[in-house]
Structure formats: C-alpha cells, structure tokens
C-alpha cells in the first residue's frame, strides 16, 4: 500500500482529534506513507460539509455507509458514540476495510467478541484508540521496566478519575443508558487504565469488582424530573486485580470525583523501586530507585525530552511539553506503519477484547459478589 485512504465516521470531539492528527502526521514524522483524507460522514449535511472543509477531506456524506463502500477508502475510522461501533466496524470489515475504532469496542462483551472474530476471519488490520499508550513518557516507563530499573514488578495501582458527572444536577444523557453507553466509568475511563496495565505489567487474569451509581436519577434537559430518568451506568468502579504473572493490583475509577479532570494515574511497584505517572502532568514520570546513600533517597522527576522517542519529532525542546492531541499523532503514525507492514498494530481488536473482558468481568464480579476469571 503506497498511500492510505482514510474514511472518517463522526466529527465530534474525537473526530476532530483524529482530523488534527491526520493533517499533522506527515509534517510531524516526515517518513510516513502518504495519507489521503477521502470522505467523512456525520448526521447532518450542515455538519458534514462544514467539517469536511475544516478537516480537509475530499468528500462528505450524511450516510456512514458511503464511507464504508468508498473504493478509495482503505481504513474506516469510527469516532461515533459507543452504541454505533459494532455495526459500523462489522460493515467495514465486511467490505474488506481495515478499522481504526475509538474505545470502548462496543456496548457489551459480546459486541467485542463479534468484532474481534469478524476481523480475525476477514484478515483485516485493526487498531483501537487507546491513545494514552502512545505517550513518550509511558513508552519510557515501559523501557525502564524492561531494563530492570525497578527490579521485578510486584504491584500495580491505577486510578482514572474525572468530574464530568460530579454535579448531581447535570441532566440525563446518553451516558446514563446501557443501550447507548454500555457501561459508565468502566467503559469510558477504566478501560484506558486496563490498557496501560496490560502494556506495562501484562495480562490481568482475575478481578474482584465493586461498581456503584451514586447519582441514580437525573433530571431532563428542561430541568424537570419527569423528563429525566434512572441512571443505569456506574459512576464508580473499584477492583482488586490478579495478573497472570501473579502480580497483585488495584484499580479505581470515578466520573464524579470533583476536581479531577484527567487523573489517569498509576504506580508500578517493583522489588527495587517504583514508577508513578499522572496524565494531568503527562510530560513527566517519577522514578524511585532503592540504591545509593539512603540519606539521598527520593523520587526523580523525569521530564519528557527528545531522548524519549518519539517526543523529539513533535518538539525538539526538552521539557517543552506535548499535549493530548499529540498522542493521536503518534497513534496515527503507528496506524500508518502498521497498515504498510512496517510493524504490528497494537492494541488491535484482539488486545481490545482482552481489555473488554476485564471491564465486563469487573461489572459481573460486582453483581455476583465473587472473583471472576477474565
Ligand atoms: P461526540 O458526541 O463529540 O462525537 C460523536 C460524533 O458522532 C458526532 O459528531 C455525532 O454527530 C456523530 N454521529 C452520531 N451518530 C452518527 C451516525 N449515525 N453517523 C455519522 N455520525 C454520527 O463524542 P466523542 O466524545 O467524540 O466520543 C466518540 C467516541 O470516542 C466514543 O466511543 C468515546 O468513548 C470515544 N472517546 C475516546 C477518547 C480517547 O481518549 N480515546 C476520548 C473521548 C471519547
């Protein structure tokens, strides 16, 4: 494949993040295959035509099936709400397209099983938008762990807290419904944490979960109780984790944690040290090593710099900071290299299914009040 034709479905928050990355990947990385912005779709002609011009796509449509059917499209990018991922991904795979899908994979574990199975059978390539994995700081943490900088891994602690539904007076929305969102804090946030845990520590084998909806009823957009509804998805998720390697861990996620904006934070405990990270300070890692004079012990703050690849391709200034949208550029270069056979794509639908097994396992464990093997 000399060049890659992209078809984008959905042009909201994540659609724009994708479009920024598609337009920036060439100038940022230079040595990447050509990317053609062929066609995008959104629900109304007004939005689709406006976004098409802004995002520099050649064509637009109000029917996402036009994207899937377009002969110039090699990869279908899905950035629509969760309830649409399964149908769109299966149609794209059926048409022989590669699929680049935002997380979570779908509403249910069965959705993810069906999507992984279809991709396997068709032999198409897939990538899921777990963009936090592409942070040079996270990649450096992986290199430190692999180099033995903290010894043998003995523990994992993970948090993902935000406050986007902390106000109990915020109105009822699609995020409150199982048939629209699938899950709450689990599928929206904790899945990112699981992707990090799988990348840095290894596969999770069993979970003991507890999920809870604190604000279990919300008013409608007109402020009245009658037009509101019962909240079906969880505000909070907690879990004990057992990794396949025997490592123990914990995970906690909340969408009602006042003051937290993107507190995707984790600690990897090792036999000789520890690494910690918080996405709200996404350009730094903290490293503790139990060596040297104990009087001088303390965490070292490692600020992202060109030496931490691929930071230098985004900015050549040490400590000059990259941002959330830059992670998508790194993800897109990975996509292009994967599609042109230069590297394997991860996390693909198989990796994504393993993540879905964990989050749905936590929900199941909470209901059954027992450990669940995932
Ligand atoms: P959004 O509401 O901002 O955007 C969704 C877009 O899809 C809108 O433009 C909407 O008009 C469009 N759409 C809806 N139905 C459609 C249809 N039938 N055909 C074509 N377009 C349609 O939502 P968002 O925040 O961008 O979230 C989208 C997805 O991205 C979700 O699955 C979410 O979980 C995921 N997401 C991922 C990250 C990340 O860090 N990777 C962050 C936020 C959201």
Keywords:
17 strands; binds nicotinamide-adenine-dinucleotide; alpha/beta; 9-stranded mixed β-sheet; 374 residues; 6-stranded parallel β-sheet; 25% strand
SSE topology sketch:
Blueprint: E1 3-9, H1 13-29, E2 34-41, H2 45-55, E3 59-61, H3 64-69, E4 75-78, H4 85-94, E5 98-101, H5 109-122, E6 126-128, H6 136-146, E7 153-161, H7 178-181, H8 185-200, E8 204-212, E9 217-218, E10 229-230, E11 236-243, E12 248-254, E13 263-270, E14 273-278, E15 284-289, E16 300-303, H9 311-314, H10 324-339, H11 349-368, E17 372-373
Parallel strand pairs: 1-2, 1-4, 2-3, 4-5, 5-6, 7-12
Antiparallel strand pairs: 7-13, 8-11, 8-17, 9-10, 11-12, 13-14, 14-15, 15-16
The structure holds nicotinamide-adenine-dinucleotide.
Residues 9-15, 41-43, 64, 79-82, 84, 102-103, 129, 131, 188 line the site of nicotinamide-adenine-dinucleotide.
